[in-house]
Protein backbone atom coordinates (compact mmCIF):
# COMPACT_ATOMS: atom_id res chain seq x y z
CA UNK A 1 0.00 0.00 0.00
CA UNK A 2 3.02 2.31 0.19
CA UNK A 3 2.60 5.35 -2.06
CA UNK A 4 -1.12 4.75 -2.73
CA UNK A 5 -3.89 6.68 -1.06
CA UNK A 6 -7.20 5.22 0.07
CA UNK A 7 -10.23 7.50 -0.05
CA UNK A 8 -12.88 6.67 2.58
CA UNK A 9 -14.92 9.90 2.51
CA UNK A 10 -17.43 9.41 -0.30
CA UNK A 11 -20.23 10.88 1.83
CA UNK A 12 -18.38 14.21 1.58
CA UNK A 13 -17.85 14.05 -2.17
CA UNK A 14 -17.05 11.53 -4.88
CA UNK A 15 -14.62 11.64 -7.80
CA UNK A 16 -16.10 12.48 -11.17
CA UNK A 17 -16.78 9.33 -13.18
CA UNK A 18 -14.93 9.58 -16.54
CA UNK A 19 -18.12 8.45 -18.30
CA UNK A 20 -19.92 11.41 -16.75
CA UNK A 21 -17.22 13.78 -17.96
CA UNK A 22 -17.58 12.35 -21.46
CA UNK A 23 -21.29 13.12 -21.40
CA UNK A 24 -20.63 16.68 -20.21
CA UNK A 25 -17.84 17.63 -22.62
CA UNK A 26 -20.00 18.57 -25.63
CA UNK A 27 -21.89 21.07 -23.45
CA UNK A 28 -18.61 22.58 -22.27
CA UNK A 29 -17.16 22.89 -25.76
CA UNK A 30 -19.39 22.82 -28.85
CA UNK A 31 -22.98 22.86 -27.48
CA UNK A 32 -22.34 25.90 -25.33
CA UNK A 33 -25.44 27.97 -26.15
CA UNK A 34 -27.93 29.54 -23.75
CA UNK A 35 -30.89 27.14 -23.59
CA UNK A 36 -33.32 30.06 -23.38
CA UNK A 37 -32.29 31.32 -26.81
CA UNK A 38 -34.38 30.42 -29.89
CA UNK A 39 -31.54 30.14 -32.40
CA UNK A 40 -29.62 26.92 -33.23
CA UNK A 41 -27.00 27.13 -30.47
CA UNK A 42 -29.68 27.69 -27.87
CA UNK A 43 -31.87 24.89 -29.20
CA UNK A 44 -28.95 22.47 -29.05
CA UNK A 45 -28.28 23.32 -25.41
CA UNK A 46 -31.99 23.18 -24.60
CA UNK A 47 -32.21 19.69 -26.07
CA UNK A 48 -29.42 18.50 -23.75
CA UNK A 49 -31.20 20.05 -20.77
CA UNK A 50 -34.50 18.47 -21.80
CA UNK A 51 -32.97 14.99 -22.10
CA UNK A 52 -31.24 15.37 -18.72
CA UNK A 53 -34.52 16.37 -17.09
CA UNK A 54 -36.30 13.39 -18.63
CA UNK A 55 -33.61 10.98 -17.46
CA UNK A 56 -33.77 12.19 -13.86
CA UNK A 57 -37.58 12.09 -13.93
CA UNK A 58 -37.54 8.46 -15.07
CA UNK A 59 -35.44 7.43 -12.07
CA UNK A 60 -37.58 9.43 -9.63
CA UNK A 61 -40.81 8.20 -11.29
CA UNK A 62 -42.15 11.69 -11.83
CA UNK A 63 -42.86 14.15 -14.66
CA UNK A 64 -39.96 16.03 -16.27
CA UNK A 65 -41.61 19.35 -15.45
CA UNK A 66 -41.41 18.43 -11.75
CA UNK A 67 -37.59 18.44 -11.87
CA UNK A 68 -35.83 21.69 -10.89
CA UNK A 69 -32.07 21.92 -11.42
CA UNK A 70 -30.29 23.90 -8.68
CA UNK A 71 -26.75 24.90 -7.77
CA UNK A 72 -26.35 21.92 -5.41
CA UNK A 73 -27.92 20.03 -2.52
CA UNK A 74 -27.80 22.87 -0.01
CA UNK A 75 -29.53 25.25 -2.40
CA UNK A 76 -32.14 22.58 -3.15
CA UNK A 77 -32.79 22.11 0.58
CA UNK A 78 -33.09 25.87 1.05
CA UNK A 79 -35.47 26.23 -1.86
CA UNK A 80 -37.56 23.28 -0.71
CA UNK A 81 -38.01 24.40 2.89
CA UNK A 82 -38.04 28.15 2.52
CA UNK A 83 -39.95 28.08 -0.75
CA UNK A 84 -42.62 25.73 0.59
CA UNK A 85 -42.86 27.44 3.99
CA UNK A 86 -43.47 30.83 2.41
CA UNK A 87 -45.63 29.42 -0.36
CA UNK A 88 -47.80 27.51 2.12
CA UNK A 89 -47.82 30.13 4.87
CA UNK A 90 -51.51 30.96 4.56
CA UNK A 91 -52.24 27.36 5.59
CA UNK A 92 -49.88 27.41 8.55
CA UNK A 93 -46.56 28.73 9.86
CA UNK A 94 -45.47 25.59 11.73
CA UNK A 95 -42.53 23.44 10.58
CA UNK A 96 -41.64 19.93 11.77
CA UNK A 97 -38.11 18.57 11.35
CA UNK A 98 -35.68 16.37 13.28
CA UNK A 99 -32.67 17.11 15.44
CA UNK A 100 -30.28 15.21 13.11
CA UNK A 101 -30.91 16.96 9.80
CA UNK A 102 -28.12 18.41 7.67
CA UNK A 103 -27.31 22.01 8.53
CA UNK A 104 -28.70 23.10 5.16
CA UNK A 105 -32.06 22.11 6.62
CA UNK A 106 -31.58 23.09 10.27
CA UNK A 107 -30.14 26.53 9.55
CA UNK A 108 -32.94 27.26 7.10
CA UNK A 109 -35.56 26.30 9.67
CA UNK A 110 -33.80 28.42 12.29
CA UNK A 111 -33.82 31.41 9.94
CA UNK A 112 -37.54 30.93 9.33
CA UNK A 113 -38.11 30.85 13.10
CA UNK A 114 -36.55 34.30 13.20
CA UNK A 115 -39.13 35.41 10.63
CA UNK A 116 -42.13 34.34 12.68
CA UNK A 117 -42.44 30.62 11.96
CA UNK A 118 -42.73 28.00 14.69
CA UNK A 119 -40.67 24.81 14.60
CA UNK A 120 -40.81 21.43 16.30
CA UNK A 121 -37.60 19.37 16.38
CA UNK A 122 -38.22 15.64 16.72
CA UNK A 123 -35.79 13.69 18.86
CA UNK A 124 -34.22 10.39 17.83
CA UNK A 125 -33.28 7.22 19.65
CA UNK A 126 -29.74 5.99 20.26
CA UNK A 127 -29.46 4.70 16.69
CA UNK A 128 -30.77 7.87 15.07
CA UNK A 129 -34.35 6.83 14.29
CA UNK A 130 -37.27 9.20 14.62
CA UNK A 131 -40.34 8.06 16.55
CA UNK A 132 -43.34 7.92 14.21
CA UNK A 133 -45.73 8.38 17.13
CA UNK A 134 -43.87 11.55 18.11
CA UNK A 135 -44.13 12.72 14.50
CA UNK A 136 -47.86 12.13 14.47
CA UNK A 137 -48.24 14.11 17.68
CA UNK A 138 -46.11 16.96 16.34
CA UNK A 139 -48.15 17.55 13.16
CA UNK A 140 -50.79 20.20 13.78
CA UNK A 141 -53.56 21.91 11.86
CA UNK A 142 -51.20 24.83 11.13
CA UNK A 143 -48.22 22.65 10.07
CA UNK A 144 -47.12 23.92 6.67
CA UNK A 145 -43.92 21.93 6.11
CA UNK A 146 -42.43 18.67 7.36
CA UNK A 147 -38.80 18.00 6.41
CA UNK A 148 -37.09 14.72 7.32
CA UNK A 149 -33.99 13.23 5.71
CA UNK A 150 -34.09 9.84 4.00
CA UNK A 151 -30.62 8.76 5.21
CA UNK A 152 -28.31 10.51 7.64
CA UNK A 153 -25.06 11.86 6.26
CA UNK A 154 -23.04 11.10 9.42
CA UNK A 155 -24.33 7.83 10.84
CA UNK A 156 -26.04 6.33 7.79
CA UNK A 157 -29.35 5.58 9.51
CA UNK A 158 -32.23 5.18 7.03
CA UNK A 159 -35.45 6.80 8.18
CA UNK A 160 -38.94 5.34 7.44
CA UNK A 161 -39.87 8.16 5.07
CA UNK A 162 -42.78 6.46 3.29
CA UNK A 163 -44.42 5.71 6.63
CA UNK A 164 -43.69 9.22 7.91
CA UNK A 165 -45.15 10.85 4.78
CA UNK A 166 -48.31 8.71 5.10
CA UNK A 167 -48.75 9.80 8.72
CA UNK A 168 -48.37 13.47 7.81
CA UNK A 169 -50.73 13.14 4.84
CA UNK A 170 -53.41 11.54 7.04
CA UNK A 171 -52.99 14.04 9.89
CA UNK A 172 -52.77 17.16 7.71
CA UNK A 173 -53.18 16.72 3.93
CA UNK A 174 -52.24 20.38 3.36
CA UNK A 175 -48.75 20.01 4.86
CA UNK A 176 -45.86 19.82 2.37
CA UNK A 177 -43.48 16.90 2.97
CA UNK A 178 -39.79 17.27 1.99
CA UNK A 179 -37.02 14.70 2.23
CA UNK A 180 -33.31 15.33 1.86
CA UNK A 181 -32.20 12.27 -0.14
CA UNK A 182 -28.68 13.51 -0.89
CA UNK A 183 -26.92 10.58 0.79
CA UNK A 184 -29.41 7.98 -0.40
CA UNK A 185 -28.89 8.36 -4.15
CA UNK A 186 -27.46 5.24 -5.74
CA UNK A 187 -28.28 3.01 -2.78
CA UNK A 188 -31.99 3.49 -2.01
CA UNK A 189 -35.10 3.58 -4.16
CA UNK A 190 -35.91 7.19 -5.07
CA UNK A 191 -39.45 6.55 -6.35
CA UNK A 192 -41.27 9.65 -5.15
CA UNK A 193 -44.67 8.05 -5.74
CA UNK A 194 -43.87 5.17 -3.37
CA UNK A 195 -42.46 7.57 -0.79
CA UNK A 196 -45.40 9.95 -1.11
CA UNK A 197 -43.26 13.09 -0.77
CA UNK A 198 -43.90 16.54 -2.24
CA UNK A 199 -40.26 17.56 -2.42
CA UNK A 200 -36.97 15.62 -2.68
CA UNK A 201 -33.38 16.86 -2.81
CA UNK A 202 -30.33 15.41 -4.62
CA UNK A 203 -26.73 16.54 -5.22
CA UNK A 204 -24.70 15.20 -8.15
CA UNK A 205 -21.32 15.12 -6.45
CA UNK A 206 -22.50 12.46 -4.00
CA UNK A 207 -22.87 9.88 -6.79
CA UNK A 208 -19.84 10.52 -9.04
CA UNK A 209 -21.29 13.55 -10.78
CA UNK A 210 -20.02 17.14 -10.94
CA UNK A 211 -20.09 19.63 -8.09
CA UNK A 212 -22.31 22.68 -8.31
CA UNK A 213 -25.45 20.97 -9.58
CA UNK A 214 -28.39 19.56 -7.66
CA UNK A 215 -32.02 18.60 -8.13
CA UNK A 216 -35.20 19.49 -6.34
CA UNK A 217 -38.22 17.38 -7.21
CA UNK A 218 -41.38 19.47 -6.82
CA UNK A 219 -44.68 17.63 -7.05
CA UNK A 220 -47.23 19.43 -9.20
CA UNK A 221 -49.43 21.91 -7.30
CA UNK A 222 -47.02 22.04 -4.36
CA UNK A 223 -46.98 25.62 -3.01
CA UNK A 224 -43.55 27.05 -3.83
CA UNK A 225 -42.13 30.56 -3.65
CA UNK A 226 -38.91 30.98 -5.67
CA UNK A 227 -35.85 32.14 -3.78
CA UNK A 228 -33.64 33.23 -6.68
CA UNK A 229 -35.32 35.89 -8.81
CA UNK A 230 -34.49 37.41 -12.16
CA UNK A 231 -35.71 35.04 -14.85
CA UNK A 232 -38.31 32.47 -15.83
CA UNK A 233 -35.98 29.47 -15.93
CA UNK A 234 -37.04 26.17 -14.32
CA UNK A 235 -40.71 27.12 -14.81
CA UNK A 236 -40.22 30.23 -12.73
CA UNK A 237 -38.98 28.33 -9.69
CA UNK A 238 -35.26 29.12 -9.95
CA UNK A 239 -33.93 32.04 -12.02
CA UNK A 240 -30.55 31.96 -13.74
CA UNK A 241 -29.07 30.60 -16.94
CA UNK A 242 -29.06 26.84 -16.57
CA UNK A 243 -25.89 24.85 -15.99
CA UNK A 244 -26.50 22.55 -18.96
CA UNK A 245 -23.24 20.61 -18.68
CA UNK A 246 -23.86 20.09 -14.96
CA UNK A 247 -27.42 18.90 -15.54
CA UNK A 248 -26.27 16.47 -18.22
CA UNK A 249 -23.54 15.22 -15.88
CA UNK A 250 -25.97 14.79 -12.99
CA UNK A 251 -28.39 12.84 -15.16
CA UNK A 252 -25.66 10.56 -16.51
CA UNK A 253 -24.22 9.96 -13.04
CA UNK A 254 -27.66 9.14 -11.64
CA UNK A 255 -28.35 6.82 -14.56
CA UNK A 256 -25.08 4.95 -13.98
CA UNK A 257 -25.71 4.79 -10.22
CA UNK A 258 -28.97 2.92 -10.76
CA UNK A 259 -27.78 0.78 -13.66
CA UNK A 260 -24.88 -0.40 -11.48
CA UNK A 261 -26.70 -0.27 -8.13
CA UNK A 262 -26.67 -4.05 -7.43
CA UNK A 263 -22.92 -4.41 -8.01
CA UNK A 264 -21.96 -1.20 -6.22
CA UNK A 265 -24.15 -1.95 -3.23
CA UNK A 266 -22.87 -5.51 -2.82
CA UNK A 267 -19.27 -4.29 -3.11
CA UNK A 268 -19.44 -1.52 -0.49
CA UNK A 269 -21.52 -3.67 1.86
CA UNK A 270 -18.83 -6.36 1.86
CA UNK A 271 -16.15 -3.80 2.67
CA UNK A 272 -18.31 -2.09 5.31
CA UNK A 273 -19.08 -5.38 7.05
CA UNK A 274 -15.39 -6.31 7.06
CA UNK A 275 -14.48 -3.02 8.75
CA UNK A 276 -17.39 -3.36 11.15
CA UNK A 277 -15.98 -6.71 12.32
CA UNK A 278 -12.28 -5.98 12.29
CA UNK A 279 -11.99 -2.47 13.72
CA UNK A 280 -13.70 -3.23 17.06
CA UNK A 281 -11.79 -6.53 17.24
CA UNK A 282 -8.48 -4.68 17.00
CA UNK A 283 -9.21 -1.47 18.89
CA UNK A 284 -10.52 -1.41 22.49
CA UNK A 285 -13.11 1.16 23.51
CA UNK A 286 -14.94 1.46 20.19
CA UNK A 287 -18.55 2.67 20.07
CA UNK A 288 -20.47 1.94 16.87
CA UNK A 289 -22.92 4.75 16.10
CA UNK A 290 -25.98 4.68 13.88
CA UNK A 291 -28.31 1.81 13.09
CA UNK A 292 -27.18 -1.59 14.35
CA UNK A 293 -29.66 -3.21 11.97
CA UNK A 294 -27.48 -3.14 8.88
CA UNK A 295 -30.49 -3.33 6.58
CA UNK A 296 -31.55 0.04 7.97
CA UNK A 297 -28.17 1.63 7.42
CA UNK A 298 -26.59 2.90 4.20
CA UNK A 299 -24.42 0.06 2.86
CA UNK A 300 -21.42 2.34 2.37
CA UNK A 301 -21.48 3.91 5.83
CA UNK A 302 -19.57 2.98 8.99
CA UNK A 303 -19.49 5.48 11.85
CA UNK A 304 -17.86 4.96 15.21
CA UNK A 305 -16.29 6.74 18.17
CA UNK A 306 -13.12 6.02 20.15
CA UNK A 307 -13.09 6.57 23.89
CA UNK A 308 -10.27 8.61 25.48
CA UNK A 309 -9.35 10.39 22.24
CA UNK A 310 -9.76 13.60 20.29
CA UNK A 311 -10.82 13.11 16.69
CA UNK A 312 -8.57 15.49 14.78
CA UNK A 313 -5.25 13.76 15.62
CA UNK A 314 -6.71 10.45 14.44
CA UNK A 315 -7.69 11.98 11.10
CA UNK A 316 -4.28 13.65 10.71
CA UNK A 317 -2.43 10.40 11.44
CA UNK A 318 -4.63 8.54 8.98
CA UNK A 319 -3.91 11.21 6.39
CA UNK A 320 -0.15 10.84 6.96
CA UNK A 321 -0.65 7.10 6.42
CA UNK A 322 -2.39 7.69 3.10
CA UNK A 323 -6.01 7.37 4.25
CA UNK A 324 -8.68 10.02 3.81
CA UNK A 325 -11.55 9.90 6.30
CA UNK A 326 -13.71 12.35 8.21
CA UNK A 327 -15.21 12.97 11.62
CA UNK A 328 -18.72 13.37 10.23
CA UNK A 329 -20.35 16.00 8.07
CA UNK A 330 -17.93 17.70 5.69
CA UNK A 331 -19.91 20.91 6.24
CA UNK A 332 -18.94 20.93 9.94
CA UNK A 333 -15.19 20.41 9.42
CA UNK A 334 -13.19 22.66 11.73
CA UNK A 335 -15.84 22.81 14.44
CA UNK A 336 -14.64 21.94 17.93
CA UNK A 337 -18.16 21.10 19.08
CA UNK A 338 -19.37 17.48 19.15
CA UNK A 339 -21.59 16.50 16.25
CA UNK A 340 -25.21 17.59 16.71
CA UNK A 341 -26.20 14.20 15.27
CA UNK A 342 -24.26 12.24 17.87
CA UNK A 343 -25.49 14.52 20.64
CA UNK A 344 -29.08 13.92 19.54
CA UNK A 345 -28.40 10.17 19.67
CA UNK A 346 -27.33 10.49 23.32
CA UNK A 347 -23.59 10.04 22.83
CA UNK A 348 -21.76 11.79 25.65
CA UNK A 349 -19.70 14.81 24.51
CA UNK A 350 -16.30 13.37 25.43
CA UNK A 351 -16.91 10.24 23.36
CA UNK A 352 -18.50 12.19 20.50
CA UNK A 353 -15.37 14.32 20.12
CA UNK A 354 -13.58 11.36 18.60
CA UNK A 355 -15.96 10.35 15.84
CA UNK A 356 -14.76 8.63 12.69
CA UNK A 357 -16.92 8.27 9.58
CA UNK A 358 -15.80 5.84 6.90
CA UNK A 359 -17.91 6.15 3.75
CA UNK A 360 -16.98 3.71 1.03
CA UNK A 361 -17.15 3.91 -2.74
CA UNK A 362 -17.23 1.77 -5.84
CA UNK A 363 -13.46 2.00 -6.35
CA UNK A 364 -12.36 1.07 -2.83
CA UNK A 365 -10.69 -2.30 -2.45
CA UNK A 366 -10.40 -4.95 0.22
CA UNK A 367 -6.65 -4.34 0.29
CA UNK A 368 -7.28 -0.71 1.28
CA UNK A 369 -9.60 -1.83 4.07
CA UNK A 370 -7.05 -4.35 5.31
CA UNK A 371 -4.42 -1.61 5.37
CA UNK A 372 -6.72 0.58 7.48
CA UNK A 373 -7.39 -2.28 9.91
CA UNK A 374 -3.65 -2.90 10.16
CA UNK A 375 -2.58 0.64 11.02
CA UNK A 376 -5.54 1.98 13.01
CA UNK A 377 -4.87 0.14 16.30
CA UNK A 378 -1.34 1.56 16.48
CA UNK A 379 -2.55 5.09 15.76
CA UNK A 380 -5.25 4.89 18.43
CA UNK A 381 -2.93 3.38 21.04
CA UNK A 382 -0.22 5.98 20.40
CA UNK A 383 -2.65 8.88 20.68
CA UNK A 384 -4.37 7.47 23.75
CA UNK A 385 -1.05 7.33 25.59
CA UNK A 386 -0.93 11.11 25.21
CA UNK A 387 -4.38 11.61 26.76
CA UNK A 388 -4.49 12.30 30.53
CA UNK A 389 -7.89 10.63 30.84
CA UNK A 390 -6.49 7.46 29.31
CA UNK A 391 -3.38 7.40 31.55
CA UNK A 392 -5.48 7.94 34.66
CA UNK A 393 -7.85 5.09 33.81
CA UNK A 394 -5.19 2.56 32.72
CA UNK A 395 -2.63 0.95 35.06
CA UNK A 396 1.02 1.28 34.06
CA UNK A 397 1.92 -1.15 31.33
CA UNK A 398 -1.58 -2.52 30.81
CA UNK A 399 -4.23 -2.09 28.16
CA UNK A 400 -7.78 -1.05 28.97
CA UNK A 401 -10.22 -3.89 29.06
CA UNK A 402 -12.44 -3.66 26.06
CA UNK A 403 -15.89 -2.76 27.23
CA UNK A 404 -16.52 -2.33 23.51
CA UNK A 405 -20.19 -1.46 23.85
CA UNK A 406 -20.46 -2.30 20.17
CA UNK A 407 -24.15 -3.04 20.42
CA UNK A 408 -25.27 0.23 21.96
CA UNK A 409 -24.23 3.83 22.09
CA UNK A 410 -22.68 5.34 25.19
CA UNK A 411 -25.61 7.19 26.73
CA UNK A 412 -25.57 10.27 28.91
Could you explain the architecture of this structure?
The longest helix is centred in the middle third of the chain and has 22 residues, at 261-282. Helix 10 (311-320) crosses helix 13. The chain has 412 residues and is an alpha/beta fold. It is globular, with a radius of gyration of 22 Å. The chain has helices at 18-28, 40-60, 73-87, 103-113, 132-138, 161-171, 192-195, 244-259, 261-282, 311-320, 340-344, 349-352, 366-384, 388-393; strands at 6-7, 67-70, 94-98, 118-122, 143-147, 176-180, 199-203, 214-218, 286-289, 301-306, 323-324, 355-359. Helix content is 39%, strand content 13%.
What's a quick, concise take on this entry?
By secondary structure, this protein is an alpha/beta fold. It has 14 helices and twelve strands.
Protein topology:
Layout: E1 6-7, H1 18-28, H2 40-60, E2 67-70, H3 73-87, E3 94-98, H4 103-113, E4 118-122, H5 132-138, E5 143-147, H6 161-171, E6 176-180, H7 192-195, E7 199-203, E8 214-218, H8 244-259, H9 261-282, E9 286-289, E10 301-306, H10 311-320, E11 323-324, H11 340-344, H12 349-352, E12 355-359, H13 366-384, H14 388-393
Parallel strand pairs: 1-11, 3-4, 3-5, 5-6, 6-7
Antiparallel strand pairs: 2-8, 7-8, 9-10, 10-12
Helix pairs in contact: 1-8, 2-8, 3-4, 9-13, 10-13
Question: Which key terms come to mind for this protein?
Answer:
three-stranded antiparallel β-sheet, single chain, alpha/beta, disordered C terminus, globular, 14 helices, 412 residues, 13% strand, seven-stranded mixed β-sheet
Amino acid sequence: MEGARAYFDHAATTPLDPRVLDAMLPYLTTAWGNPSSIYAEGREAAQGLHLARRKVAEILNCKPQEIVFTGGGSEADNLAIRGAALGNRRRGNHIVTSAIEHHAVLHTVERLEGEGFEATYLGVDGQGFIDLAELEGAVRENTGVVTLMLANNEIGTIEPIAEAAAIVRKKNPQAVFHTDAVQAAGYLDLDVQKMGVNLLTLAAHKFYGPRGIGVLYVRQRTPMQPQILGGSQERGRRAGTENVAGAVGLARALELAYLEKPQRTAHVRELRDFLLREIPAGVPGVVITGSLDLDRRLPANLSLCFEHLEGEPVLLNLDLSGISASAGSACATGSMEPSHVLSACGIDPDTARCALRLSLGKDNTMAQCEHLVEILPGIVEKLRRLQPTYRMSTPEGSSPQSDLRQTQAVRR
